[in-house]
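Course assignment 3, question 2. Fill in each field.
Student: A.L.
Task: Predict the tertiary structure for the chain below.
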Amino acid sequence: MLIELLGGELVVKISFENTDREFDDNIRLSFHEPCHDDTRIFRATETNLFLTSQEARKLAEILQKIADESDLSSHDSV
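Answer field:
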């Protein structure tokens, strides 16, 4: 799955690494920055993080909670 952030300057690819299935941290977050060096968040063009399924679920849970808070907040201000 690909997610483009920051107007496409940060591309996040999330995948299950089947070749690493014997390891607990087999969920890969690959950050690719097709932008100029001076605007990069990471030093490299591509940076990879590997998560366990529990860490991925916790991240998803937190993102969902914060997204819900944002939605509620924007509705409250109308």
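Instructor remarks: Residues 2-76 form one domain. The radius of gyration is 16 Å.
Grade: pending
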